[in-house]
Amino acid sequence: DAGVIQSPRHEVTEMGQEVTLRCKPISGHDYLFWYRQTMMQGLELLVYFNNKAVMDDSGMPKDRFSAKMPNASFSTLKIQPSEPRDSAVYFCASSPGGETQYFGPGTRLLVL
Amino acid sequence: AQSVTQPDIHITVSEGASLELRCNYSYGATPYLFWYVQSPGQGLQLLLKYFSGDTLVQGIKGFEAEFKRSQSSFNLRKPSVHWSDAAEYFCAVGAGGRRALTFGSGTRLQVQP
Predict the structure, then answer these.
(1) What is the per-residue pLDDT for B111?
(2) Contact B32/A99, CB-based, under 8 Å?
(3) For B33-66, how does the pLDDT look when each residue is reduced to its tens digit (9 = 90+)?
(4) Most C-beta atoms within 10 A of its C-beta, which of A44, A87, B21, B96?
(5) Looking at the DSSP assignment, which residues form a beta bridge with residue B25?
(6) The three-state (H, E, C) secondary structure of B4-51, written as one string
(7) Any A CB within 8 A of B56 CB
(8) Preceding omega of A8 cis (within 30 degrees of 0)
(9) Interface test with B, best of A10, A56, A100 (most B CBs within 10 A)
(10) A48 to chain B nearest CA, in Å?
């Protein structure tokens, strides 16, 4: 299996622009997680899905962030408008059953 | 809510020496416990996990960890460190119906030749 696939791997954008991060989970995994990693906050959960339904989005700033999972093999995390404080590494992880999570390589986002 | 503490921000060991990375968790029941490793610029790779049963678990790359309920700890060990083990190590806890993991702040391991 190819593992969790994330794109793009690097993104540089200007403040106010829309950013879309993409994730393809491991086939057959019914849980998908989006985490954000920063020096100050470490790894923190933004949102997670079970069978394409949002289960917990309490960590996600809903005024500018939105997450979708239109089908079992694809998810997006959108930031609009982006701000410099959104600069971070965004990880997608998937899990068969929710316990053990397998992480993608991450998307490094820099908002200028 | 669960929490994880990794008291050592940075550890330096000599190649061939033994290693122990500390992890303490806070959770009322038996948690699911994990250790992940992150090399620079890379994602997180699962080293090992504990759900139940034998409190000493073996992982990949020669790592092991021991769950001690009385100390709320899940320390990671390796008998002989290799230069390629230099990375950041994260302890994580999963608990109850909430599937998301809570991560510690990480321990950066440096290996001296």
Answers:
(1) 97
(2) yes
(3) 999 999 988 889 999 999 888 899 999 999 999 9
(4) B21
(5) B4
(6) EECCCCEEEEECCCCEEECCEEECCCCCEEEEEEECCCCCEEEEEEEC
(7) no
(8) yes
(9) A100
(10) 7
